Amino acid sequence: MHKKILIVFGLISLVFAAAVLQGNVPKKTTEQVHHEPYREISGSIRKGETLFDVFKRYQLSIEDLFRIREASASVHRLRKVCPDQPYTITVDDQDRITNFEYWIDDDSILCITRNEAGFIAEKKPITYEKRLLYFGGAIQDNLIASMGDSRDALMLALQLSDIFAWDIDFTTDLRNGDTYRIVVEGLYLDGEFKKYGDILSAEFVNDGTISTAYRFTVGGETDYFDRDGKSLKRAFLKAPLSFRRISSGFSRSRYHPVLKIRRPHHGIDYSAAAGTPVSAIGAATVIFSGRKGQYGNLVILRHANGYLTYYGHLSRISVEVRAGRKVEQGQVIGYVGSTGLATGPHLHYEMRIGNRPVNPQQVSLPRGSAVPVNLLEDFQQQVRAMDTQLAAIVPAAYAKADTKGGAGIDP
Ligand SMILES: [Zn+2]
């Protein structure tokens, strides 16, 4: 008798162990299928996994999978699914899939529903609840390290660097003690912070110079403007090495993408890792692309305002950058190297007007388009509202934006 109880207990443990071993099976296990009209399976795509693997793991109909793929082909190709993307599958009492949801990215979800005829696929936008968040801090070492360790903080730092890319070279211009204040949308789902949305307004004080940006939409196009309503865009970016391109490959603040610059001659030398992408400072026509003496691999661009820019010692020139072709502002034209007369990898950058060399750091160019007169009152009203919010932010020394949302400083 005693033995029998033990065996029964052993069997129960085995069943329990089997359930545990199945791993990521959601709370409703197969056991509950018999008691409930349907079951819901949810999880996230694992690394290297396909939907076929998911269907097999949960013993779902492979035939349904083929039909789901077919139904969604015109909306979103399901052949390749991305790791970490969540999915939810609902199955009825006969183990037929009634619903399949897959998160394509942060902004859209693929919804597939069964009806009498088969499956219907639809791509639905994810609607976030927006909350305003406020951040202020001081620079220590570099922008990314100062804003925090998380991926979200990195994305926010890159967004900030994009906004001021015409005014501040975030790789070489920053000083310890520079401060920033940011008003940004926090995107929430079911009360939980998901990611940062758009920066609505920002202020950056670099070596005592204050730059302010206000997000505003004109004729359906959203842009950032200074307080006078002039677009922050200019004919030339502040630097030929994009802070975003340098930084986004490194998700940890432990990497400090600080570059040294030297001005030993008529140009500027940016020391940077070999292979760092080099961007066209402004829209231009390529007038030279190839090898040239001490410059090594060189690209020369001619801009509409009469300026020429030189990019030397490149390890490689982008294929499409050929004499006579046009390039856009920010377009990658080549990669940092040490071809020609160079002791180590660096970008030799030079600006000329005619034959006369000019210091690119001292060239001042007019701002881009302005807010049209008929919208100026709306814009100024927004500026005043944002200024009140910015002023209330205390740029506490080394305040970090990496505590998931809600951690902003409330004005
Ligand atoms: Zn040089």
Walkthrough of the structure:
- By secondary structure, this protein is of the alpha+beta class.
- It has 3 domains: 23-125, Roll (Nuclear Transport Factor 2, Chain: A); 128-234 and 367-411, Nuclear Transport Factor 2, Chain: A; 235-365, Distorted Sandwich (Glucose Permease (Domain IIA)).
- 19% of the residues lie in helices and 35% in strands.
- The chain is built from 7 helices and 21 strands.
- The protein has helices at residues 2-21, 51-57, 62-72, 143-147, 151-163, 243-247, 376-391; strands at 38-44, 86-92, 97-103, 108-115, 118-125, 129-138, 179-189, 192-206, 209-218, 221-225, 260-262, 268-271, 277-279, 284-292, 296-303, 307-314, 316-317, 326-327, 332-335, 346-353, 356-358.
- The strands form 4 sheets. Strands 11, 12, 14, 15, 16, 18, 20 and 21 form an 8-stranded antiparallel beta sheet that branches. Strands 1-2-3-4-5 form a 5-stranded antiparallel beta sheet, with helices on one face. It has a 5-stranded antiparallel beta sheet with strand order 6-7-8-9-10, with helices on both faces.
- A hairpin with a 4-residue loop joins strand 2 (86-92) and strand 3.
- The longest helix is centred in the N-terminal third of the chain and has 20 residues, at 2-21.
- Zinc ion (ZN) binds at residues 265, 267, 269, 348.
Layout of helices and strands:
Blueprint (H helix, E strand, L loop, with lengths): L1 H20 L16 E7 L6 H7 L4 H11 L13 E7 L4 E7 L4 E8 L2 E8 L3 E10 L4 H5 L3 H13 L15 E11 L2 E15 L2 E10 L2 E5 L17 H5 L12 E3 L5 E4 L5 E3 L4 E9 L3 E8 L3 E8 L1 E2 L8 E2 L4 E4 L10 E8 L2 E3 L17 H16 L20
Antiparallel strand pairs: 1-2, 2-3, 3-4, 4-5, 6-7, 7-8, 8-9, 9-10, 11-12, 12-20, 13-19, 14-15, 14-18, 15-16, 16-20, 17-19, 20-21
